[in-house]
């Protein structure tokens, strides 16, 4: 099961090279992707961002990527619903970590005049989903947004920020590019996501190999988000928890879907391989927990 999803809405905000948001049409611009392995000086270097880029690109290049898009499309739809709940329109919007454009496809041009979509995976941008909104696709890292201050009326982000090494910096970047009366609506996986898979792998590896390594990436606790958002400069915070339960026949089917989503583990301290006996034992534990 994948759970929960955290959604927040923030409005208004307080108080590298820049890209002006004045151009129009649909295009792709390579910019603001830092060198492989780079991160902000203060950040914990937990995730291999270059590996995550490769995972997302691999997923986007599959013959039937929509087979694995069901969760991201559902969350994108829920974020769009949150945007529609706000009684105003947004001439210029930004989607941070857009993937294949899971939010824009659910928005209309009466509400959003134009949207910039950014992601670290170039193939996700090239294979983005259809939308009626004028769109600009930009290759950019969530921690290094290449936009000027006070640019956007709306910033959205769906199931991307849990992979950044410096979440406070990413939130500060979003705050920086928002206009003073701008709105930020986002969602990320919460702390209990993949709990059954995490426990199954830990129990099996401890029993078979005398210890365990982290196989599931760490997720931000819901209780920490309000503090992080406030520290980034946002006010009028609304933080919700939506539980989306997805049932799988077994552990291997779940792992296949995670790979197809581009959501495989990319922690630097991940263990490359597990013994076959350990995997089979973990699958048996998972079946017991999921039943």
Largest sheet: 8 strands, mixed
Class based on secondary structure composition and strand pairing: alpha/beta
Q: Estimate the mean pLDDT confidence.
A: 86
SS summary, helix count: 8
Low-confidence stretches: 13-31
Number of strands: 8
- The coarse overall form would be globular
Q: Write down the secondary-structure element order.
A: EEHHEEHEEHEHHEHH
In short:
This protein has 291 residues and is an alpha/beta fold.
Give an overview of the whole structure:
The chain has an eight-stranded mixed beta sheet, with helices on both faces. The longest helix has 15 residues, at 70-84. It is globular. Helices cover 32% and strands 16% of the residues. Residues 13-31 have low confidence and may be disordered. The chain has 291 residues and is an alpha/beta fold. The chain contains eight helices and eight strands, in the order ββααββαββαβααβαα.
How is the topology of this model organized?
Layout: E1 5-10, E2 28-30, H1 49-60, H2 70-84, E3 93-96, E4 115-119, H3 122-126, E5 135-139, E6 152-158, H4 167-177, E7 178-189, H5 195-209, H6 222-231, E8 237-242, H7 251-261, H8 276-290
Parallel strand pairs: 2-5, 3-4, 3-6, 4-5, 6-7
Antiparallel strand pairs: 1-7, 1-8
Helix pairs in contact: 5-8
